């Protein structure tokens, strides 16, 4: 049974350059010009404060650790990190205590706050603790257990590709869920691999501009798991900081979506009336957006189809509308219609909305990294080789330079587990074909059922195209199999096969190869802070 954790703390201030201990009341403190983030750690058994400080320094930022938040003017900092600890060593912030009010008031003026704890989301409010959930876009749904050993990032958010072992304190780790009123955006960030429970949420309040990160684990308990992802907690901190302070953005806000039918059947004609607001926070720049009419994804993973475009080139902020007509593809599942606001041209920082017919977003996000690919995530076919040395490739053009190929991956399985390995490479491009090896080989093992295999690469590009290549090292026609999407149109001219006669375009091999999009992908980032993109409908040739 749980007891009552500590409700008080003494004062301790510690910065990168040293430490200062004080007792008694103190006037409001002003940070030095070098200190960017305040780290409040009343945790009885500190487990994260120093790790957060180290990660901030590794990312070129600075921080100050304190046991008392009250003497500080939070608006003087770029953000606040709060570490309340894990039961039975956790600190409980009393409901509407001076500490709670200070944090709430900071958020009311657009503050940035990270809050980690084991109990503050679900349990603490039941015993007199402050309920932070509404300000962090979090519903604490149960008290959790002591079963958190692996944390995995969420596809479609800035934690995609992250995977950590967890070795921190582990008792009653609150389970979380998001809520998303019309003026707010929140996204799940991490799940427990053991049971799928959510343990992290990112939240943007569009009314006051505050941005929060709420988690139910300790940052100091994260360890790299190189078998699953090539990233460490410094990389996670980099993404946290980018969430707190993204580049100036332009974004589209859904106002109204109406349709002539609430459901459709494959082959039907469908019409959508769409109204949206274009918000541009960078007055000196203009964008071109595309509006994409789409069939909403369901459990089968059916992908959106472009049906119409609306360029907003050299136009300012304001309200816009569009009447969109589309014919539902015969392959579409029974579903409700939707639309998607697509990627910006040229690539620039922005946010995107995918909404259903009621204006409810499927996903909203920002990113400075993204997957580039041609498949839609559903695989109706696959390719295997009859001999070793045969290969497949996908040619990819970065949206901006300089670019870094952070990792590459594919979906792969096997029929006969005697033939289940392959090598992946990054090749340069010459006249549209794979040329020389830039990185690799990275040996991967197929699994059954198939899984997406990702390997870290860290290859820089300043110009030109590159190819993601898979070469069979075990082959006799029984595997391994590279999964392929067979929806049309295929990315003809950008996918290749290497047999005994060398590289040829995959589409030249005839049916069904001319209908396939291989599951070869690359994860790109841009070192120029003035660029960004997100995962929407991939470009095709």
Written overview of the protein:
The protein has 541 residues and is mainly beta. It has helices spanning 49-58, 98-108, 133-136, 233-244; strands spanning 12-15, 18-21, 37-40, 63-66, 79-83, 112-116, 138-142, 150-153, 163-166, 175-178, 184-192, 198-205, 211-215, 222-224, 250-259, 269-280, 291-295, 318-327, 337-341, 350-356, 361-365, 369-372, 381-383, 391-396, 403-413, 421-430, 433-445, 451-461, 466-472, 481-485, 495-499, 502-505, 517-518, 521-526. Keywords: Signal. Residues 1-21 form the signal peptide.
Write the layout of secondary structure elements.
Elements: E1 12-15, E2 18-21, E3 37-40, H1 49-58, E4 63-66, E5 79-83, H2 98-108, E6 112-116, H3 133-136, E7 138-142, E8 150-153, E9 163-166, E10 175-178, E11 184-192, E12 198-205, E13 211-215, E14 222-224, H4 233-244, E15 250-259, E16 269-280, E17 291-295, E18 318-327, E19 337-341, E20 350-356, E21 361-365, E22 369-372, E23 381-383, E24 391-396, E25 403-413, E26 421-430, E27 433-445, E28 451-461, E29 466-472, E30 481-485, E31 495-499, E32 502-505, E33 517-518, E34 521-526
Helix pairs in contact: 1-4
Signal peptide: 1-21
Keywords: Signal
The low-pLDDT segments are: 3-32, 281-314, 329-369, 528-541
What is the CATH topology descriptor of the largest domain?
Answer: Rossmann fold
Q: What's the overall geometry? A: elongated
The overall strand count is: 34
Radius of gyration: 25 Å
Counting H and I runs of at least 4 residues, what is the number of helices? 4
The fraction of residues in strands falls at 35-45%
What's the pLDDT, averaged over the residues?
73
Q: Specify the CATH class of the largest domain.
A: Alpha Beta
